[in-house]
């Protein structure tokens, strides 16, 4: 779930349109269908390559990397008490931050997981803490039960497949995070997380792509656009 080649429509007018409108972002709106198709094909191939490389990491190494990522996130997020932190359920070799979410919960944070409502629509975030019951969502990824309250996160931790030096994020191509962030009335702090092997020169960002505030890998802060 990530920056996408399928821009779709927003559920509501983007409240941070200055960040996604091409007139402000400095990125050209899609006007060349041939170029758009080329970018789509390139992203698909690069996505497959990066996921394969990530899956080759052994469990011991991945566990060590995940702990390093969590440590950096903890420093950047700061005191957890009273904050709502949305993370994700790890999928296809993504960093597993469940131990970190347990720490946040113990420190007084409210954690949450994203829920896909419908393709082409923004995500919802439902309250969840490690140990809470889940059900199966899109792609069989566990999500909070429907009875869990919908929350507005102060912090969003987003998994990535690839990232570039500007903090643009390559994900699975659904555009969920871009669409969700663009429609939020209050902007959260956004952290992209992945392994250092996910670094690429560019994702060829399109006008609807939104850069992460920070990108964190096992090597530390790879990109910092935040305050």
Structural overview:
This protein is an alpha/beta fold and 227 residues long. The chain is built from 6 helices and 11 strands. Strand 7 and strand 8 form a beta hairpin. The longest helix is centred in the first third of the chain and has 23 residues. The radius of gyration is 17 Å and the shape is globular.
Mind summarizing the main beta sheet? 7 strands, mixed
Q: Number of DSSP strands? A: 11
Structural class: alpha/beta
Runs with pLDDT <50, length 5+? 1-30
**Second CATH tier, the architecture:** 3-Layer(aba) Sandwich
**Helix fraction by DSSP (H/I, runs of at least 4):** 25-40%
SS field, number of helical segments: 6
What is the class in the CATH system?
Alpha Beta
| Alpha carbon gyration radius | 17 Å
| Percentage of β-strand residues | 15-25%
Q: Report strand order across the widest sheet.
A: 3-2-1-6-9-10-11
CATH superfamily assignment? Answer: NagB/RpiA/CoA transferase-like
Give the overall shape, derived from the CA principal axes: globular
Q: What's the helix-strand series?
A: HHHHEHEEEEEEEHEEE
Beginning-to-end CA distance, first to last residue: 25 Å
Domain module tally: 1
Q: Under CATH, the topology is which?
A: Rossmann fold
């Amino acid at each position: 779930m990530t920056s996408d080649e399928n821009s779709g429509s927003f559920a509501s007018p983007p409240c941070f349109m200055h960040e996604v409108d091409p007139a402000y972002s400095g990125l050209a709106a899609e006007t060349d269908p041939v170029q758009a198709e080329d970018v789509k094909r390139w992203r698909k191939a690069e996505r497959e390559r990066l996921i394969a490389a990530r899956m080759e990491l052994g469990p011991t190494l991945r566990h060590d990397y995940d702990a390093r990522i969590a440590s950096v996130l903890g420093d950047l997020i700061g005191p957890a008490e009273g904050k709502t932190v949305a993370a994700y359920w790890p999928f296809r070799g993504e960093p597993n931050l469940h131990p970190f979410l347990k720490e946040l919960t113990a420190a007084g944070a409210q954690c949450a997981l994203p829920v896909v409502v419908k393709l082409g629509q923004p995500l919802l975030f439902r309250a969840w803490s490690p140990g809470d019951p889940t059900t199966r969502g899109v792609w069989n990824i566990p999500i909070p039960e429907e009875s869990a309250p919908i929350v507005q996160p102060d912090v969003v931790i987003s998994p990535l497949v690839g990232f570039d030096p500007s903090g643009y994020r390559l994900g699975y191509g659904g555009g969920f995070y871009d669409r969700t962030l663009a429609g939020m009335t209050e902007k959260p702090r956004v952290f992209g997380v992945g392994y250092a092997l996910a670094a690429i020169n560019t994702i060829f960002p399109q006008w609807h792509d939104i850069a992460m505030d920070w990108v964190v890998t096992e090597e530390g802060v790879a990109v910092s656009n935040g305050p």
